[in-house]
Amino acid sequence: MTRIDRRGILRGAAATVGVALAAPFLTRSAMAQGNGTVNIFAWAGYLNDDILKAFKDSTGITPNYTPYGTNDELLNQLRANNGGGFDLIWPTVDRVPNYVEYDLVQPIDESRIKVDQVLPSAWENSVTLGAVVDGARYQVPTDWGTEAIAFDTDQMPLEYGSASYGNIWGAAAEGKATVRGHSSLIGLGLWLEAEGKLPRPLLDAFKTPEAQTEIFDVILAEAVARKANIIQFWTNENEAQGAFRVNGAAIGQTWDSTAATLAREGLPIGFIAPKEGALAWMEGLSIPKNAENLDAAYAFINWFLTPEAGAMYTNATSINSTAVGSDQLISDEAKAFFAAAYPGDALEKLWWWPIQESWYVTKRNEYQDRFLSA
After folding, report:
1. How far, in Å, are 184, 211, 304, 334 from residue 372 at the CA level?
2. What is 134-176 written as a DSSP string?
3. pLDDT tens for residues 214-237?
């Protein structure tokens, strides 16, 4: 597995300066479809009314948006529907091989994708991160973001260079932290690895069940010993935001979009990459095996990869679009959030999620459950 070029994902965006903004791209069949529909199963908060209306106004196609909160919720729902019920899904790229394994998605017809509207680094690096299985592409990369440290700027101010996952687990955070079960074990693991306290490199946990057990046994013991720090566990966006709004959290390991939303509400919440590296993920659009509206599905993918749509998405979520030229159109607020979250060499240190095979996910969930119930 090749790690993604951390600079490249931004270098591709910078190369678009001076390129004329492309008009929304539609296949002729999609145009002819007129008032058709496309059923989209996507993360909660990803598609607001403005984005959905802009797509319909541009194409005449009515988007039906159903939100979900976790990758596992998406996978379980699609398995229950035998790869049907939706025309598009939005998994993280490292989980795409799970859908291929269960025969739930169909290969992408690359001739129907306007590939030149995707950042080249995202298109190329998605291959090794999970979008391509046995030579066939099953996902078009549309966005990327991170899970790092959200913090109350009054109660627990942090600065880049010293901010660490260890701040979440230290004595000062007792009764003040919020984390997600399984990914918090990775954040804790990165801190322990930096401290020389893991028996082998953390990435080995994704290679064999034996290595995963050896590494996670150490991480779990540390997590249980420090569990008094956790005031609330979260599993989805609403829960993570609620931890800060109403439940007294002052620090946490959350998504970038969580902190951005809270900050827009006027709460004193910052977001910073820790010195061990922010957990970075790429996402994209995949087409379920039994999708019924293929033309409309491809129309949405290509429309979402226009600079205008990409900028609308980033402005709404503070998640980064892979659409070429979108970085030239995002708001000053979105630019400021990005600059504050990833100063200095933070982009060099991004820790990209490796492919999570089914055996890894099963064991990961077992350790998560042991942590939650301890």
Report:
1. 11, 22, 38, 34
2. TTEE--EEEEEEEEEEEEETTTS---TTT--THHHHSGGGTTT
3. 999 999 999 999 999 999 999 999
Token pair of 236 as six digits: 């989805």
Give the tens place of pLDDT for each residue, 36-69.
999 999 999 999 999 999 999 999 999 999 999 9
Specify the DSSP class assigned to residue 187: H
Contact (CB, 8 A) for 230 and 179: yes
Which one, of 1, 40, 252, lies nearest residue 149 by Cα?
252
Q: DSSP secondary-structure letter at 10?
A: H
Q: Does the model's pTM come out above 0.85?
A: yes
State both tokens at 232: 């609330």
Task: Note the pLDDT of residue 32.
Answer: 37
Contacts of residue 265, Cβ cutoff 8 Å, sequence gap at least 6: 245
Q: Which residues pair with 250 in a beta bridge?
A: none
Distance CA 66, CA 63 (A): 10
Work out the angle at residue 98's Cα, subtended by the Cα atoms of residues 111 and 240, and round it to the nearest 5 degrees.
105
Q: Measured between alpha carbons, how far is 3 from 354 in angstroms, rounded to an integer?
A: 8
Whether 360 shows a pLDDT value over 60: the answer reads yes
CA distance 177 to 188: 13
The neighbouring-strand residues paired with 143 are 283, 321
Contact 358, 101 (CB under 8 A): yes
Residue with tokens 């002819």: 32
- Run of H or E including 279: strand 279-285
What was the pLDDT predicted at 122? 97
Average pLDDT, the chain: 92
CA distance 323 to 305: 5
Please, are residues 274 and 254 in contact by the beta-carbon 8 Å criterion?
A: no
What's the chain's length in residues?
374
Q: 13: which 2 tokens?
A: 């965006």
Strands 140-152 and 251-255: antiparallel
Task: Name the token pair of 48.
Answer: 């607001």
